[in-house]
Amino acid sequence: MDMSRRALLKVIVLGDIGVGKTSLMNQYVYKKFSQQYKSTIGADFVTKELQIDDKLVTLQIWDTAGQERFQSLGSAFYRGADCCVLVYDVNIQKSFETLNNWHEEFVKQAADPADPGAFPFILFGNKIDVDGGSSRVVSEKKAREWCASRGDIPYFETSAKEGYNVHEAFLCVAKMALEGEHEHEQEHEQEHDIYFQGISETVSEVEQRGGCAC
Amino acid sequence: MHSFQINNNVDLIIESSGEPSNHASPQKKSEIELVHQEDHEPVLQSNNLGDEKEIVDKLRIADVPETPLLNGTTSNGGVAGENRVSEWLWTLHRIVVDVVRTDSHLEFYEDKRNLARMSDILAVYAWVDPATGYCQGMSDLLSPFVVLFEDNADAFWCFEMLLRRMRENFQMEGPTGVMKQLQALWHILELTDKEMFAHLSRIGAESLHFAFRMLMVLFRRELSFSEALRMWEMMWAADFDESVVCDLEENCLDALLLNVPRDCEGDTREESIENSDGSSRDGSQSKHGNVEHLTSDNTGMKSASAYNFCGFTKNFWSRNDRMQITNAISSTKNGDDELPVFCVAAILIMNRQKIIKETRSIDDMIKIFNDRLLKIHVKRCIRTATKLRKKYFYKLIKSKNPVVQNGE
Fold it and tell me: Which compartments does it reside in (chain A) (predicted)?
């Protein structure tokens, strides 16, 4: 592989309405939190450059709508994904229950049908700051059990509002995506060439907007 | 008569989640609570499921068809009932989550009573249209009506009328209406703008997903609040014709049709007897006469509405009349005569240079649209769109029948 080439890692963020998908991404990339994010219609993405060991990678993080009926649309964006981030709100039981659905749908639509268990997932339990944790309804234990039942998915507890654990969680995402990338290099090569063309010319813009080189 | 107390919804949702954590800010919940403490007694204080069920049963409307359960799991009666309750509470939760972040930059929504109005109307809609329920994007479409009308009923009916055009986008099976429109858009570009069509093909943007949001919430996210209203008004003025109105009449939700009070029906019948030519539905248009207030109630809109022709000459409209054009060809209902689709095409064409120079993948396209990096001049957009529609139908006729000249 050409050393000067930058790996583009595509990450999809899924989870129910209002669990904080957009906020997590914006906290990670722009280091800020706003109460005024609108609901995501369709899909959007942010990018961030970072260095993992000695490798420079571009993380392209896709934000999606949190309602199941838009899942059919999601598949168009899932294609070529290197990692999938599932998000739930630790204060809302139902947002935890719908994880099964998000997980299954993603596996169905995007994972390698020959080895669906191999696709890298990660779970974020968000909004742990709310009411100092007293309104929490899903325990960390429950969440970790769920992760274990899905093939030892890594788990992070986060607060997009306070920036707690967000950086660490996404760093893990990037590492997992990068590992997967090595395995699928051949498959994706052609696809990525197209992206690289676009990216090489917009790097400065990305850096400027990203605000952080890590 | 439907006699449910809409404001209970706010209580229900707060009870259902136990805590306000679902809101972006804990403060917001308490403020919503304040609202109902002023206006209504808090009805629901218990958190146990039996009581919740009782309340929801009270809300039940006899003439509404059974709510299809979201997961379709109606294995046995008791469980189904419980599911119904929890699905409804979940719907209310989702409504509130979206309401507090809809147009939250507007001073108008700093008054939490206005947020409560928005969630009430969405809850009523979800109730009378259980096949659709609540879907993201609806709050963007409703918000302008809440701002424009003091009366919730007026806002509701305008919103309901708008959804008759757009309901297909919000149903369980996904946004099928928009997907059709995107296909139509692709065909329109192919016929009317070879250069844009070639560029989008080259960069692999055939899915046109970057236009999804524009069509889903009618340019609410790409334009400022007032510009979006200007756009809506001009689009609807340009598209106004009797056949569309009749189509929309037919498209009324069953639950709402049953709700027309007796005396109104009497009026309708008299009028239709007068007409006695079978066009009996025309009389009920008065129900939707509210729509007219839209143009006169808001001072911000006056510059546009003071003109009878939305700032264009009468000549312009008659030249680009929708009826005239669509009658020329028997268009099937596939979205290719809908003005919003042509508006998207117009926006692409008006930003041609930037798009061709700066986009190399569909991701780039999504980015420039989502980050509002394109110029959208509303009046020019509508003008270009109506001309494009004319051009498209002309080309379509020509392609189908090369012998025809001048489109007619």
Answer: Cell membrane
CA proximity to A167, closest of A15, A18, A19, A27:
A27
Q: Return the beta strands (E) in B226-331 as ranges.
A: none
What is the DSSP track for A122-134? EEEEE-TTGGGGT
Burial of B153 (0-12, 13-18, 19+ CB in 10 A): exposed
Predicted confidence band of residue A140 (pLDDT cuts 50, 70, 90): very high
- Closest CA relative to residue A210, chosen from A105, A56, A60: A60
Query: Alpha helix (H) ranges present in chain A?
Result: 21-30, 71-78, 93-97, 99-110, 140-149, 166-210
Query: Residue B296 CA to chain centroid, in angstroms?
Result: 21
Residue A31, sorted as left (phi over 0), alpha (psi -120 to 50) or beta, turns out to be left
The verdict on A212 touching B (C-beta cutoff 8 Å) is no
Distance, CA of A117 to CA of B147 (rounded, Å)? 50
- Close Cβ partners of A70 (under 8 Å, ≥ 6 residues apart): A42, A64, B136, B174, B175
The DSSP symbol for B291 reads G
Is the pLDDT reported for residue A11 higher than 70?
Answer: yes
Residue of A38, A41, A34, A23 whose CA lies nearest to B225: A38
A35 to chain B, any CB pair closer than 8 A? The answer is yes
Cβ atoms of B163 and B40 closer than 8 Å: no
Query: Which is nearest to B183 in space by CA: B69, B40, B333?
Result: B333
User: Tokens at residue B349, please?
Assistant: 């064409």
Under an 8 A CB cutoff, do A42 and B26 touch?
A: no
A65 lies within 8 A of chain B by CB = yes
Residues 6+ apart with CB under 8 A from B255: B61, B63, B64, B65, B128, B129
Residues from chain A contacting residue B174 (CB–CB below 8 Å):
69-73
Burial A69-102 (b: 16+ CB within 10 A, else e): bbbebbeebbebbbbbbbbbbbbbebbbebbeeb
Instruction: Give one DSSP letter per residue of A187-207, joined into a string.
Output: HHHHHHHHHHHHHHHHHHHHH
ipTM: 0.82
Asked if B155 contacts B291 with a C-beta cutoff of 8 angstroms, the reply is no
Identity of the residue in B22, B209, B221 whose CB atom sits nearest the CB atom of A38 = B221
**Cβ distance B364 to A198 under 8 Å?**
yes
**Spans of all domains in chain A:** 7-209
Sequential DSSP letters for B367-406: HHHHTT-S---HHHHHHHHHHHHHHHHHHHHHHH-TT--T
Cα separation of B21 and B278, whole Å?
55
What pLDDT does residue B79 have? 75
Q: Is the pTM of this model over 0.90?
A: no
Report d(CA A56, CA B119) in Å as an integer.
46
State both tokens at B161.
Answer: 């009328």
Q: What is the CATH number of domain A7-209?
A: 3.40.50.300
Q: Among residues of chain B, what percentage have pLDDT more than 90?
A: 44
> For residues A19-41, b (16+ Cβ closer than 10 Å) or e, as one string?
bbbbbbbbbbbeeebeeebbbbb
Report the gap between the CA of A105 and the closest CA in chain B (Å).
14
Residue B109 to residue B118: CA distance in whole angstroms: 10
Q: Which of A38, A42, A89 sits opposite B212 (nearest CB)?
A: A42
**C-alpha dihedral sign at A60, A64, A66, A71:** negative
In sequence order, the 6+-apart residues with CB closer than 8 A to the CB of B84 are B56, B67, B69
